[in-house]
């Protein structure tokens, strides 16, 4: 370098830490440039070498919305593999294809919005397909594996930067943008946060997205304590990107802040760094933040912190170091490579779960198979699927494996022709796909396959075009390749007028189909069925009749039923129930009546309650929507070419009444998941069969005499394959803590190991059990504790089949009684509650309790309170509204409660105005010793905390 050459600016020096480089970049940006960084679309800064930048490429199970890309199984299906190496390899392929899209278009973001780590608390959640497991720790383990592949293994440069979704307590779609999840501390720390903290601690994610909902009355986008809980665990940058439209929703929907400048300031102060709002128009976000700066609600340091995190992320993807970035050489052609196809097939097979089998599986060579049902000859995609380069259906794969002459296909749909009353002619698609009622005869051009998906929803597939009816353009066409879109345009309802005619409603627009008098073109135009066209329906053939005939002529029937991921359960829409659609259930019964040698194959995004169908079928098999290789992967397992390895990561309930309240986010109180469910599942968490027989013969535990929270025990499980085939067994160990003071899950997974057992082989499998995994959240100390005493370790093939048990003794210090003399005790840290709800203490931080809507009073219970030395009480209270308001203090006296003091709440109208009030006991508290204390909220009162004053 010449002596007079300018020095290399620090941000250009790759030898410096990313943080130092980012800080140097930051101080070179003008305020206007920094403000522009706060929106999802950031303009280029050419003088600094910064390109145009956007947050967010969807990469849930393949690259979505950017054209052709390898499509893998949905996350719930990937999870069913329980194969961490496989998930990492899938992540590597997805990350590579993101890089390929970025090479073709540099505005494609290397910040990917995946994985989703919300635990699958309730099977009616519409987005069930996006999560991994109902167990938060297994969710963390699987998500870490997938994110590790997305991130890559270079110590400095990231292949892509994964984003954890969605912080936090998000598992309901109904009113999701205004719903407040009630989340007490135990549910927060034991059930919700672990799924996020695992990938963060592993260093494989660099961003997080808050959820749409509120938690305890406060929107997550302004919940600094939640964001801080993650940033405290991340050694490095952590960009927080808002969900789409959420910043505006703080004002427009949630009504939490009165104006957008205040809301934007609150979000930035809480830690949101990038606003996904108003699509490509950044001026609105910038204007709101600038108004907040002008009003003194923010200072430039708040803006700088957000910009700095984004700069670190961008530097980590090698934006300024293309010569050093190991991923920069990935070209635009690294899509749909042969290795990617092979991996997609392997993943599809690995996630297939055999739930029941009387010996009909695996299918023998030479068998004649009828494949029946709506999933026999289609591969569905979901909202976050990419565009697969090809698809292999179940029927395709069976014909390829068994021979086309051995396979009969019947989709089970009724084939009909519709005749317009207006024109007197039948509906057919023209050469341009437009639907016209002008055919004089009901020939094949007019035939439509009518498939019912439940709750009155139908799709109609033209036999002439082979494509679905759609109302996306007002004029109806028969040219849709699949059901899809944010607003589905390919679903219809049929209204029976009771006089032999029907009318058809296009569900996407809500309009009813009209036939235009001139030309007979079908349009979605009428407001109600009375003004809609009336059609007579000619049934060309019955799908049930064809299915029964095919079943009688086959050796084995494979009935493929399940959901379409865009209908009756998806983002914005929770499932109406857990049952199979009525039409599909009846189709399965029709087939079973004709041929009991039936394999009920469920292709779905979530569990079902199958009832008697699960008992009647010779075998029951489940697969998620497994992407482009669904057919091959499923048939690989059905034929035994691949041994079944899939296991459930979410239990399938025996009865709909067993799953609890969708809107109760506390799994302890709600009895959710295998941790706390009071009823046995039909198919338990961890369940899945092999084609052999594995017996569990013995369990011993190697452990030190003085185990503590840092110790690791070894569970040694002896298993034997007593069958005549290789078995891929998933050995599972669960913990239980009967008799402990703190409530513990009925059982929780603490270790698992996949083993391959040859016929007749006996194996001792050693599984590490970390004592820290036995910890539960203690509200008294505000920390995780492992209570000393006896634990049980159970081993078996699922949470519902644990034939082996061994004892484990843990030393430690017992949790002491709660004291009121060492400082304030938060009301939210109660042990039990009734008729109260959790609410914000202040707008920006803290949690209090108040009487639930519709209840005149409620209470919180503090267990094991040491009242020695306590002479009086002080409470921090506020009003929730007008009227009488007081807090009564009660102490347990045997089986009844003794009211010992009352604190009145001062008058006022400001719910954020807190007062410290005294409650003088009518009796001497120290005489009660250690006992339970109940704080009864009476009327319009909010309670934040309580403390004791010393006697004398």
From TrEMBL:
Tell me which Gene3D superfamilies the record gives.
2.60.120.380, Glycoside hydrolase family 3 C-terminal domain, Glycoside hydrolase, family 3, N-terminal domain, Immunoglobulins
UniProt keyword annotations, A-Z: Hydrolase, Signal
Q: Which InterPro entries match?
A: Actin-crosslinking (IPR008999), BXL (IPR044993), Fn3-like (IPR026891), GH (IPR017853), Glyco_hydro_3_C (IPR002772), Glyco_hydro_3_C_sf (IPR036881), Glyco_hydro_3_N (IPR001764), Glyco_hydro_3_N_sf (IPR036962)
Per the UniProt record, which residue ranges are transmembrane?
Answer: none
Record bears the keyword NAD: no
Q: Which Pfam families match?
A: Fn3-like, Glyco_hydro_3, Glyco_hydro_3_C
User: Residues in domain Fibronectin type III-like?
Assistant: 729-799
Q: GO biological process: any one?
A: xylan catabolic process
Q: Which domain of life is it from?
A: Bacteria
MF GO annotations: alpha-L-arabinofuranosidase activity; xylan 1,4-beta-xylosidase activity
What the entry lists under PANTHER family is as follows: BETA-D-XYLOSIDASE 5-RELATED, SUGAR HYDROLASE-RELATED
As for family, the record states: Belongs to the glycosyl hydrolase 3 family.
Record-given protein name:
Sugar hydrolase
Please tell me the species this chain comes from. Answer: Cellulomonas algicola
């Amino acid at each position: 370098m010449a002596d007079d050459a300018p020095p290399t600016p620090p941000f250009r020096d790759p030898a410096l830490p990313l943080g130092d480089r980012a800080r140097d970049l930051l101080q070179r940006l003008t305020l206007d440039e920094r403000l522009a960084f706060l929106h999802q679309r950031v303009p280029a800064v050419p003088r600094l070498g910064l390109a145009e930048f956007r947050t967010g490429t969807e990469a849930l199970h393949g690259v979505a919305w950017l054209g052709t890309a390898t499509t893998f199984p949905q996350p719930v299906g990937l999870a069913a593999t329980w194969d961490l190496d496989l998930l990492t390899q899938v992540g590597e392929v997805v990350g590579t294809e993101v890089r390929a899209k970025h090479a073709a278009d540099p505005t494609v973001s290397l910040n990917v919005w995946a994985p989703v780590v919300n635990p699958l608390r309730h099977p009616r959640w519409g987005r069930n397909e996006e999560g991994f497991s109902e167990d938060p720790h297994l969710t963390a383990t699987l998500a870490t594996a997938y994110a590790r592949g997305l991130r890559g293994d270079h110590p400095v440069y990231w292949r892509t930067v994964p984003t954890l979704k969605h912080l936090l307590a998000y598992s309901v779609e109904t009113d999701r943008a205004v719903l407040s999840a009630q989340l007490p501390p135990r549910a927060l720390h034991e059930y919700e946060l672990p799924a996020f903290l695992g990938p963060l601690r592993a260093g494989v994610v660099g961003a997080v997205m808050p959820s749409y909902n509120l938690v305890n009355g406060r929107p997550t986008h302004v919940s600094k304590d939640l964001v801080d809980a993650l940033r405290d665990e991340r050694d490095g940058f952590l960009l927080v990107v808002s969900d789409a439209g959420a910043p505006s929703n703080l004002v427009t929907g949630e009504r939490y802040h009165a104006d957008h400048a205040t809301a934007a300031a609150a979000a930035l102060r809480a830690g949101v760094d990038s606003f996904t709002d108003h699509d490509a128009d950044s001026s609105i976000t910038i204007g709101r933040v600038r108004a907040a700066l002008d009003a003194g609600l923010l200072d430039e340091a708040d803006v700088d912190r957000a910009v700095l995190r984004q700069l670190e992320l961008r530097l980590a993807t090698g934006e300024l170091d293309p010569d050093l970035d190991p991923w920069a050489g990935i070209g635009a052609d690294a899509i749909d490579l042969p290795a990617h196809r092979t991996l997609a097939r392997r993943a599809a097979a690995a996630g297939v779960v055999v739930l029941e089998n009387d010996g009909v599986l695996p299918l023998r060579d030479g068998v004649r198979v009828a494949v029946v049902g709506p999933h026999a000859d289609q591969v569905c995609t979901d909202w976050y699927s990419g565009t697969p380069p090809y698809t292999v259906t179940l029927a395709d794969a069976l014909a390829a494996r068994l021979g086309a002459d051995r396979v009969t296909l019947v989709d089970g749909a009724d084939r009909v022709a519709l005749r317009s009353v207006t024109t007197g002619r039948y509906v057919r698609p023209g050469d341009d796909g437009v639907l016209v009622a002008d055919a004089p005869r009901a020939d094949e051009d007019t035939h439509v396959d009518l498939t019912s998906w439940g709750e009155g929803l139908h799709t109609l597939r033209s036999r002439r075009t082979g494509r679905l009816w759609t109302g996306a353009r007002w004029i109806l066409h028969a040219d849709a390749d699949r059901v899809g879109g944010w607003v589905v345009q390919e679903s219809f309802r049929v209204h029976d007028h009771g006089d032999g005619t029907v009318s058809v409603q296009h569900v996407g627009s809500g309009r009813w189909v009209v036939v235009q008098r001139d030309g007979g073109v079908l349009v979605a135009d009428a407001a109600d069925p009375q003004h809609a066209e009336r059609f007579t329906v000619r049934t060309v053939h019955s799908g049930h009749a064809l299915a029964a005939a095919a079943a009688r002529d086959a050796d084995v029937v494979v009935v493929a039923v399940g959901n379409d991921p865009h209908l009756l359960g998806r983002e914005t829409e929770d499932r109406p129930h857990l049952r199979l659609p009525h039409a599909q259930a009846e189709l399965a019964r029709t087939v079973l009546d004709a041929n009991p040698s039936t394999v009920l194959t469920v292709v779905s995004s979530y569990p079902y309650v199958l009832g008697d169908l699960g008992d009647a079928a010779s075998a029951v098999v489940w697969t998620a929507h497994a992407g482009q290789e669904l057919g091959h992967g499923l048939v690989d397992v059905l034929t035994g070419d691949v041994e079944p390895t899939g296991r459930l990561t979410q239990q399938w309930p025996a009865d709909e009444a067993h799953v609890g309240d969708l809107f109760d986010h506390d799994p302890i109180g709600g009895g959710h998941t295998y941790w706390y469910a009071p009823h046995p599942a039909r198919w338990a968490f961890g369940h899945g069969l092999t084609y052999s027989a594995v017996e569990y013969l013995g369990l011993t535990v190697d452990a030190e005499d003085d185990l503590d929270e840092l110790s690791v025990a070894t569970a040694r499980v002896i298993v034997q394959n007593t069958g005549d085939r290789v078995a891929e067994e998933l050995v599972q160990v669960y913990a239980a803590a009967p008799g402990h003071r703190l409530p513990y899950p009925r059982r929780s997974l603490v270790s698992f190991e996949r083993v391959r057992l040859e016929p007749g082989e006996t194996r001792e499998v050693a599984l590490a059990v970390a004592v820290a995994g036995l910890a539960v959240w203690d509200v008294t100390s505000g920390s995780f504790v492992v209570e000393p005493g006896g634990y049980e370790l159970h081993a078996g093939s699922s949470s519902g089949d644990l034939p082996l048990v061994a004892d484990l003794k843990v030393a430690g210090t017992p949790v002491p009684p709660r004291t009121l003399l060492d400082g304030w005790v938060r009301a939210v840290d109660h042990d039990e509650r009734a008729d109260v709800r959790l609410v914000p203490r202040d707008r920006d931080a803290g949690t209090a309790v108040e009487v639930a809507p519709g209840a005149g009073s409620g209470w919180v219970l503090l267990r094991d309170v040491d009242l020695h030395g306590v002479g009086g009480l002080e409470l921090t209270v506020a009003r929730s509204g007008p009227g009488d308001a007081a807090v009564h203090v009660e102490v347990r006296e045997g089986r009844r409660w003794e009211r010992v003091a009352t604190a009145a709440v001062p008058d006022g109208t400001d719910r954020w105005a807190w007062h410290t009030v005294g409650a003088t006991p009518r009796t001497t508290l120290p005489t009660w010793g250690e006992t339970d204390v109940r704080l009864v909220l009476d009327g319009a009162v909010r309670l934040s905390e309580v403390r004791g004053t010393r006697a004398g």
